[in-house]
């Protein structure tokens, strides 16, 4: 996939993941970054469990990237919550 396809896939996955986890987006830039990280993480995890990962710009890849983005968002909120607290 090309550079712009990864950005678009990351934006879609980050936006969908943000809507599922937090019911609102984190902002376009953060959604893109977390979505791209989620696409990489989701692709790696799906391949580790014997499934195909990111196969191009299609529905399966959006599903894989969104699943990874959900995991990344959960981690992001956990770390952000710990960093922001006064423990």
Jot down its keywords.
87 residues; globular; 3 helices
What's the SSE blueprint?
Blueprint: H1 3-22, H2 28-48, H3 59-84
Order of helices and strands: HHH
User: What are the low-pLDDT stretches, counting only 5+ consecutive residues below 50?
Assistant: none
Give the fraction of residues assigned to helices: over 70%
The domain count comes to 1
- Oligomer description: single chain
First-to-last CA distance: 43 Å
Class computed from helices, strands and strand pairing: mainly alpha
Rg over CA atoms, rounded to whole Å, is 13 Å
Q: How would you describe the shape?
A: globular
Figure out the total of helices.
3
Mean pLDDT score: 80
Main β sheet profile: none
The strand count comes to: 0
How would you describe what is shown here?
The chain is mostly helical. It has one domain. The protein contains three helices and no strands. It has helices at residues 3-22, 28-48, 59-84. The radius of gyration is 13 Å and the shape is globular. The termini are far apart. The mean pLDDT is 80.
